[in-house]
Every structure is written in C-alpha cells, then in structure tokens.
Amino acid sequence: MRKFLEQLPIPPILKNFYVLSGILFLGWILIFDRNDLITHFQLRKELNQVESQKAYFADKIQVVETNRTELEDDKELLEKFAREKYLMKKDNEDLYVIEFQEEN
C-alpha cells in the first residue's frame, strides 16, 4: 500500500496513511453512515417543527383552561356557552337555526 501511495501525484501530507485514513473515516461518517449530516439536518428541522407545535398547543391548553375556569365559576356564562355551542334550550323555548349559504 505504501508503494502505491508513493507513486500517486498527490501532496505529501495526503500520502501519510493516518491522514488518509482519517479523511476516509470522516467521509464515511459524514456521508454514508446511518447518522450522517443530511439525517441530522432533517431531524433538526423536524425537532424545530415539533417544538413550535408544542408551544402552540401549550398556548391553546392555557386558553382552554382559562375558559373552563370561567365557565365553572359563572353559571350565566355557562348557559350562554351551552346555548351557542351546543344549541341547548330550555323546555319552554323553541329553537330556530338559520344557516346562511354562500352564493358562488
């Protein structure tokens, strides 16, 4: 192997077996390995997306908890919420739902 390396027209530093082995090792790790750079970039991108979703849902959970607390404390607000959201009514009432259709 040493004789073969001496015959090639390459800089003397690259003729060193350890330098060449190190370069090949780095090339293998950076390109061909299961945990190469491309995979790391893709995983980092996915991690950033998941963290942003986590922050979004944490904010939504906070809003829902606040609304739940308000609904538990205020009976009038609970009744209004039930009427608007779930179309609930009292026994002596009639409920009419009007749906608007958009014209194309």
Report on this model:
Helix content is 72%, strand content 0%. It is mainly alpha-helical and 104 residues long.
Summarize the structure.
With 104 residues, the protein is mainly alpha-helical. The protein has helices at 2-7, 12-15, 17-32, 37-73, 75-86.
SSE arrangement:
Layout lengths: L1 H6 L4 H4 L1 H16 L4 H37 L1 H12 L18
Gross geometry: rod-shaped
Note the run of SSEs as H and E: HHHHH
Radius of gyration: 34 Å
Please tally the helical runs, counting DSSP H or I stretches of 4 or more residues. Answer: 5
The tally of beta strands, per DSSP, is: 0
What structural class do helix, strand and pairing data support?
mainly alpha
Helix content: over 70%
Q: Which runs of at least 5 residues are low in confidence (pLDDT < 50)? A: none
Strand content: under 5%
Distance between the termini: 78 Å
Largest sheet: none
- Summed over residues and divided by their number, the pLDDT gives a mean of 86
Total number of domains: 2
Descriptors for this entry?
104 residues; mainly alpha; 5 helices; rod-shaped
